[in-house]
């Protein structure tokens, strides 16, 4: 069982992160953090963030009177926690979350002195500074009493450091201090001192880090929430940790360089709610400048026009596509394999032979005829209360540059694998219906039997595969309205740039209805239990959803449907990395 005081301390930190608000010049910024900072999460103005969340469709849903019985029930389940918080630090959970009134950030930095890494949290309490001071004082007292720790104070640059040392000698101390309404909480004394000593800025700062600057330039610096992870710093820490355990740091670094991992510099992102034309929008940028090497060569995604193929019906529940240079991917795979196992792919090819002498050459027969685009569509069978989360059918489509050549390859695959599909003609196209085989399993484990058949066809310049033959027949039949001309898709597509590497489109109502039905019927709980069946003790400790949410108090689906928003996503691969954007639009289509 977790110690109540640990829960209390965690909630205090969590509250500070989520509840900070308008900006204050006193809060140290990125120029105060060291350039070796591993990660940082920033809230520019959490008062604005809270307001934006309230203006979003999710916030409006929570304000709907039909939601009140459910919210009251959830609130009642937190009553014991609120009572404990009130006794220990003088405020409820809601009051705690609303205490800070300025910007906030949480950073993880490297520390060579006390501990390998240190955590720093900074928040501005604004006009609630006195309340924050009382919370921190009472929290310090509780930590000292309940965790049997030792508290002391130390003066540093005119500020009082409150230091709480846990009883375990190898545990780093928790430190906090304040200046005006700005509060700094850290794990590790030296990390807090380093921040205070450089509060006005340092030359080798996070702001001056080229990777951090590149992500800021790509995504902007004015979002409600932003985050950053220095991949290179993380890799160096892992290599160092391996060396301390007896590994060879030099060999590890050489391997990572060979694999091209050293090109992954950093990743960062932004999140905004109820902003501009979006109900919500998140952007993520994986910074990997320079020519691709190693495993990064596997994923070359040239840009294409964000238009669905003409065979995609307007009735799909979801659509996603990726532009992927498969020829380049195979060439990169061959180079990587030959670095470690020269000739391995050729040996595999020689081992693939059918009863009639059929052979497969990966480049010539498989990757050569393939195109550079892969798409997946999904549909739901049933509607309303009958819409089942398991009733989602998907179809995979891979573009072909040479249909006839790949048909020959497909025949070879059938011969070599021993599969005997049933062939049938559908409006001039041959459909192969294949009964899925029983898959081998580990000793003592049940055999895996996939459900039903897979239907495969080559037509319209694509290889199609699906477990729902009627969906394939609909694609082959054609003649209906297409997704490319669908008004809902066009509204979303207006937010795509002219060229993308991937893009997706979703109709939220069908997916949300399926999840809603799963909750109400208990199917979701059954799925969780089935998924955790092999987890042993962890599965036994999995909570029952009915203990967390009274299903009877969940309102009718029509309440949720009023606030569902149309959305999509897209990504663009450029010379300096990959940018991924996900968004949902307001209910009225604009702001």
UniProtKB/TrEMBL annotation:
Residues 1-25 form the signal peptide. It comes from Tautonia sociabilis. Keywords: Signal. This is DUF3352 domain-containing protein. The keyword Signal applies. It comes from the Bacteria. The lineage of its organism: Bacteria, Pseudomonadati, Planctomycetota, Planctomycetia, Isosphaerales.
């Amino acid at each position: 069982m977790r110690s109540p005081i640990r829960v209390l301390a965690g909630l205090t930190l969590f509250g500070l992160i989520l509840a900070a608000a308008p900006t204050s010049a006193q809060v140290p910024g990125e120029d105060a953090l060291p350039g070796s900072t591993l990660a940082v999460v920033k809230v520019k103005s959490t008062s604005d963030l809270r307001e934006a969340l309230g203006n979003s469709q999710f916030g409006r849903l929570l304000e709907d009177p039909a939601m009140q019985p459910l919210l009251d029930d959830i609130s009642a389940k937190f009553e014991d926690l609120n009572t404990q918080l009130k006794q220990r630090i003088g405020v409820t959970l809601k009051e705690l979350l609303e205490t800070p009134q300025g910007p906030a950030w949480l950073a993880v930095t490297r520390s060579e002195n006390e501990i390998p890494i240190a955590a720093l949290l900074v928040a501005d309490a604004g006009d609630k500074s006195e309340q924050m001071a009382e919370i921190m004082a009472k929290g310090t007292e509780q930590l000292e009493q309940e965790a049997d720790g030792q508290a002391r104070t130390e003066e540093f640059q005119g500020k009082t450091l409150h230091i709480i040392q846990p009883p375990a000698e190898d545990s780093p101390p928790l430190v906090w201090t304040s200046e005006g309404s700005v509060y700094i909480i850290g794990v590790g004394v030296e990390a807090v001192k380093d921040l205070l000593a450089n509060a006005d800025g340092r030359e080798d700062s996070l702001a001056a880090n080229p990777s951090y600057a590149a992500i800021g330039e790509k995504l902007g610096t004015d979002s409600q929430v932003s985050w950053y992870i220095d991949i290179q710093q993380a890799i160096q820490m892992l290599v160092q940790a391996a060396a301390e355990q007896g590994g060879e740091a030099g060999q590890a670094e050489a391997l990572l360089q060979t694999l091209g991992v050293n090109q992954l510099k950093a990743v960062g992102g932004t999140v905004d709610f109820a902003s501009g034309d979006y109900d919500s929008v998140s952007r993520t940028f994986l910074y990997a400048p320079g020519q691709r090497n190693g495993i990064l060569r596997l994923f070359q995604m040239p840009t294409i026009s964000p238009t669905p193929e003409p065979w995609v019906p307007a009735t799909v529940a979801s659509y996603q596509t990726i532009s992927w240079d498969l020829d380049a991917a195979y060439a990169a795979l061959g180079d990587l394999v030959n670095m470690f196992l020269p000739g391995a792919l050729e040996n595999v090819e020689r081992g693939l032979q059918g009863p009639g002498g059929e052979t497969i050459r990966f480049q010539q027969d498989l990757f050569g005829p393939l195109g550079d685009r892969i798409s997946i569509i999904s549909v739901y069978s049933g509607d309303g209360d009958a819409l089942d989360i398991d009733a989602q059918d998907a179809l995979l489509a891979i573009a072909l540059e040479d249909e006839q050549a790949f048909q020959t390859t497909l025949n070879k695959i059938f011969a070599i694998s021993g599969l005997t599909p049933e062939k049938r003609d559908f409006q001039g196209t041959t459909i192969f219906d294949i009964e899925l085989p029983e898959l081998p399993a580990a000793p003592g484990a049940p055999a895996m039997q996939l459900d039903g058949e897979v239907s495969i066809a080559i037509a319209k310049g694509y290889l199609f595969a699906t477990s729902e033959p009627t969906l394939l027949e609909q694609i082959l039949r054609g003649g209906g309205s297409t997704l490319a001309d669908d008004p809902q898709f066009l509204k979303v597509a207006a937010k795509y740039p002219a060229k993308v590497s991937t893009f997706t489109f979703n109709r939220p109502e069908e997916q949300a209805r399926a999840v809603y039905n799963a909750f109400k019927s208990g199917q979701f709980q059954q799925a969780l239990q089935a998924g955790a069946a092999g987890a042993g003790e962890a599965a036994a400790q999995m909570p029952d959803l009915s203990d967390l949410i009274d299903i009877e108090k969940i309102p009718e689906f029509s309440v949720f449907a009023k606030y569902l928003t149309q959305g999509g996503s897209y990504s663009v691969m450029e010379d300096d990395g990959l940018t991924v954007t996900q968004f949902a639009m307001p209910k009225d289509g604009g702001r």
